[in-house]
Write a structure and sequence with these properties.
mainly alpha
Length: about 160
């Protein structure tokens, strides 16, 4: 048996199917959240300022086309996040009252993020300035996402402590 086969056997001998599912769904969940938040931050910090520098008629058309292109990506990411999150919730351990309270707050923020993101990709102009007025939907989503990440880190620390 060569080195690679021995290393593979050593690594995989302690991996149960349950552990593999847990790691896979956790990876799907975290990577989907990173892609969603990264897309939102990119749209807010790069796309909106560039679009706002265009003449208004070009801005409206370009913003609409950009949103339509991102729409299917957003829906796919939302399905992956919700599906993997439900799996993680249902397959996880029982938690304390404090954990459940913070988890509920996190879920309210997640509902805000998902609904605002869907409204953003389905609205006629997104966050670009139209007739001198601009929207702040992307900033709201990004701020809520950062709070959710912070709460998630706190919840993970509670889980690691066995609380």
């Amino acid at each position: 048996m060569d080195f690679h086969n021995r290393a593979r056997a050593l690594i995989l001998e302690n991996v149960s199917p349950d552990l593999l599912h847990h790691v896979l769904f956790r990876f799907i969940h975290i990577s989907s959240v990173v892609a969603l938040v990264g897309g939102i931050v990119y749209a807010r910090q790069v796309l909106v300022p560039v679009l706002n520098s265009l003449p208004e008629d070009v801005r409206l058309e370009t913003a609409s086309r950009a949103q339509k292109k991102y729409r299917s990506t957003l829906y796919t990411l939302v399905v992956l996040i919700v599906g993997s999150g439900l799996y993680n919730l249902l397959s996880g351990p029982k938690h304390t009252h404090a954990y459940q309270i913070w988890f509920g707050i996190k879920m309210l923020l997640v509902a805000h993020i998902i609904s605002a993101a869907i409204l953003w990709v389905t609205s006629p102009y997104g966050d670009v300035t139209v007739a001198g007025k601009s929207k702040r939907r992307l900033i709201s989503i990004a701020a809520s996402a950062l709070i959710v990440v912070f709460i998630s880190a706190y919840l993970r620390s509670l889980t690691q402590q066995g609380l």
